[in-house]
Specification:
Helices cover about 30% and strands about 15% of the residues. It is of the alpha+beta class and about 475 residues long. The structure holds flavin-adenine dinucleotide.
């Protein structure tokens, strides 16, 4: 006997919310999708269309063999992603990237949502999900309305959710030259959970430091959006170039201080300044540049940071930046299926969970929609393997991130999908060198991901069939 299922409410008709509503409906679960535009706008959206792309029109690389976001595209296609289908149908020429006609894309998403018999579209701001809604997905994005952000903050006990978000670059560990850099914590302090050798240190001579500061001062920077001006800095983090403007020695007494560190390659010579990198994920494959939040343009960051000894060949999993963002401390607040521990009726999806980017937000919307549908249909929820792009992203959001190893603010920050989030291959590819070896590794990770994804999809369909 088919019983009518109660609707799941999805708040926010962006990339994540549109995908989540579609996944629910395709699984036979009615969805009510709430979108506040055009009745209330955001500082970046310009239309009343669903899944509006607020800035670039690119879904980034479509290379599913050597690029983590390309792999995420491919996994989403195999998971019947609505956003990917609309993206593919509205593609414009962009070399190896998947770029879309933004108006055509949003129009296709809006029309399909409106036509789906199990989706109801409601316009209006949700300031607090109604008590009668027993299953809600909150997908209100980086520009979540202030009233809802306050309600979430009150429920979670977090002080603030919207930050003038200063993010520091993250480097792939295996691209750091440990013939110049070395592992050591300042004064060899182990601290809670540390070993005394937790940081990677890159030493600079006086000449190198002065050239570095000069490069920061003259480097090309991104301007502020008008609406960003009133938002506070996250935990008082100042961009390094602003610190450099305060005086040539400021950085040397701040994030680049050399004290308590001895270079094992030149034990008799004190470095004039030191750049420290701290482990960023449990796997130990990614390290962030401590205190290096910056508004330098991306190409400038690569050029200038590669002048640091030890980072000459650094590969960046994420570059630094500053923008307004709203996100929750997901590793602390969410369970493995994206439910809020403080109120299990609420799930979160999209950029508000701490992923970054159009595609990642839609992928987390896809997962939230499937999890909520399985729950509504009384099916067992199985998580995607962490070897898949979906699983790696979910693990970063809900638990893969390392808590700080010393005193200081929690360093959970939004992140694009990248191969550093994946567990390493059991055996490194043999017989290749340099770039070839890197490509073989990425290819191996992608092959493993798609094989494991197929197994997961197969398992999910058995669970669904058993519940029919
Ligand atoms: C200025 C800016 C530029 C960006 N540029 C890029 C880029 O170039 N490339 C990229 O990949 N990513 C970019 N991003 C990030 C990108 O916006 C997100 O990754 C993506 O849009 C997030 O998807 P989402 O569904 O989580 O949120 P969104 O797509 O923002 O959707 C959230 C939706 O929720 C609605 N909403 C908010 N509050 C409420 C409420 N209380 N009630 C009802 N509805 C509500 C909003 O109107 C919006 O439609 C940018 C972000 C910003 C802020």
């Amino acid at each position: 006997m088919v019983t009518e299922l109660q609707a799941v409410h999805v708040v926010g008709g962006g990339l994540a919310g549109s995908e989540a509503a579609w996944q629910l409906a395709q699984a036979g679960v009615p969805a009510v999708l709430h979108e506040m535009r055009p009745l209330k706008g955001t500082a970046a959206h310009k239309t009343d269309g669903y899944a509006e792309l607020v800035c670039s029109n690119s879904f980034r690389s479509d290379d599913s063999e050597h690029n983590a976001v390309g792999l995420l595209h491919e996994e989403m296609r195999r998971l019947d992603s609505f956003i990917m289908r609309a993206g593919d149908a509205n593609q414009v020429p962009a070399g190896g990237a998947l770029a879309v006609d933004r108006d055509g894309f949003s129009a296709a998403v809006s029309a399909a949502l409106a036509a789906h018999p199990l989706i109801t579209l409601e316009r209006g701001e949700v300031t607090l999900p109604d008590n009668s809604w027993d299953s809600v997905i909150i997908a209100t994005g980086p520009l979540t309305s202030p009233a809802l952000a306050s309600a979430i903050a009150a429920l979670t006990g977090e002080q603030q959710l919207a930050f003038f978000d200063a993010i520091a670059p993250i480097v792939h560990r295996d691209s750091i030259d440990l013939d110049h850099a070395w592992f050591q914590s300042r004064y060899d302090k182990a601290g809670p959970g540390g070993t005394g050798a937790d940081y990677i240190n890159c030493p600079l001579t006086r000449e190198q430091y002065e050239a570095f500061v000069a490069a920061l001062l003259t480097g090309d920077k991104t301007g502020f959006h008008e609406w960003e001006v009133s938002t506070p800095y996250f935990d008082g983090c100042l961009p390094i170039e602003i610190m450099a403007e305060r005086g040539p020695e400021t950085l040397r007494h701040g994030p680049m201080k050399p004290f308590g560190l001895t270079n094992p390659y030149q034990p008799g010579i004190k470095p004039y300044a030191v750049v420290q990198l701290r482990q960023d994920n449990k796997l130990g494959t990614l390290f962030n540049m401590v205190g290096f939040q910056t508004k330098l343009k991306h190409a400038e960051q690569v050029r200038i940071f590669r002048t640091i000894p030890g980072l000459q060949k650094a590969e960046f999993a994420r570059l630094g930046g500053l923008h307004r963002n709203t996100f929750i401390n997901s590793p602390k607040l969410l369970d493995g299926t994206l439910r809020l521990k403080a109120n299990m009726r609420w799930r979160f999806a999209g950029q508000i969970t701490g992923c970054e980017g159009y595609v990642e937000s839609a992928a987390v919307g896809l997962l939230a929609g499937r999890f909520a549908a399985a729950e509504r249909r009384s099916e067992k929820i199985t998580l995607p393997p962490t070897t898949t792009a979906h699983g790696a992203l979910l693990a970063h959001i809900t638990g893969g991130h390392l808590e700080t190893i010393d005193a200081g603010p929690s360093s959970f920050q939004p992140m694009n999908v990248n191969f550093g989030l994946f567990p390493p291959l059991a055996a490194a590819p043999e017989g290749r060198r340099g770039g070839q070896r890197g490509l073989a590794r990425k290819s191996g990770l992608s092959r493993r991901a798609l094989t494991d994804l197929a197994r997961w999809i197969e398992g999910e369909s058995h669970t669904a069939a058993a519940a029919e």
